[in-house]
Amino acid sequence: MNKRYVIGNLKMNPNSVSETEQYLSTLRKELFGKRIDGVETVVTPPSVYLERFSRELPEHILLGAQDVFWEKEGSFTGQVSTAMLRDLHCGFTLIGHSERRTYGHETDMEVGWKVRAALHENIRPILCVGETSEERDRGEEADSVSKQVTLAFHEVSPLMAERILVAYEPRWAIGTDATPESEDILEMRIVIHRALAELYGPAVADKIPVLYGGSVKAALLDRVCFEPRMDGVLVGRESLYPHELIRIAQSVGAYGVSESDGIEHHS
Ligand code: PEP
To answer: Domain 4-9+38-254 falls in which CATH fold?
Structure first.
């Protein structure tokens, strides 16, 4: 049984420094006297607010970035380096989020470079993969996701591979309120496990957490997380409400340890 994770992706929010203060203070208040056990909870704010989050994030909530550049330093206007993230105690970064693939035209090759750069700086990549609705309509979802996984893990050693979290985020489910059925999520979890097992063998593949992301809400956790035996969730819009993020983290952390997760595990 892997550790569980809840990632709150704030996307392009909050809108100002004062809204950021408000978010952090509500998060602190909501957490007061509560425990979140059995789950690592990570918040990924926009890079301009990372420093403030780094200073003021409540204990037990970890900091992540939404993206990172692959070069260490140099003339790369607008980019943020792995060293900058490390300096701000960012332990995680999203890589290959569908909104970056769509609006930033990020390619699988660039995603791979970013993954390796983050690992090099001891920052855990949260690798986002998922099919488009057209690919699903054509029955190509497994091929598409396997390919994204294989290219992102290219040249990553088995030891380093275990530091990566994979978030299965069907692109048609992000920001849309559409969610796949549990069986479809489990099927894609198995596809991801198989792609990883082909690269590293089943024992290493077992250790790589696979999360679900795409219109996650507390009321949907059975369907998108527990029934398909995912290792956690990547939450977008709902994470803008601190009480919802905490509610989701508490539920994911409290969910019973399962004997069987539908995947053949190896020691
Ligand atoms: C996301 O940002 O990765 C995401 C899944 O967004 P939402 O939950 O809003 O669909």
So the answer is: TIM Barrel (3.20.20)
Q: Is 266 a catalytic residue?
A: no
User: Per residue of the chain (267 residues), what is the pLDDT tens digit?
Assistant: 679 999 999 999 999 999 999 999 999 999 998 888 999 999 999 999 999 999 999 988 999 999 999 999 999 999 999 999 999 999 999 999 999 999 999 999 999 999 999 999 999 999 999 999 999 999 999 999 999 999 999 999 999 999 999 999 999 999 999 999 999 999 999 999 999 999 999 999 999 999 999 999 999 999 999 999 999 999 999 999 999 999 999 999 998 644 444 444 443
Would you call 141 a catalytic residue per the annotation? no
Closest ligand 1 atom number to CA of residue 173:
10
For the chain, the distance separating the N- and C-terminal CA atoms, rounded to the nearest angstrom, is: 11
How many angstroms separate the CA atoms of 102 and 107, rounded? 10
Probe residue for ligand 1, chosen from 6, 9, 66 as the CB with the greatest number of ligand atoms within 8 Å: 9
Which atom of ligand 1 approaches the CA of 237 most closely?
Answer: 9
Q: Active-site residue among 40, 110, 131, 169?
A: 169
Residue spans of the domains in the chain: they are 4-9+38-254
Q: Give the pTM.
A: 0.94
- Ligand 1 test: best mutation among 99, 126, 128, 174, most atoms within 8 Å of CB? 174
Alpha carbon 23 to its chain centroid, in Å, reads 21
50: nearest Cα among 104, 110, 94, 5: 94
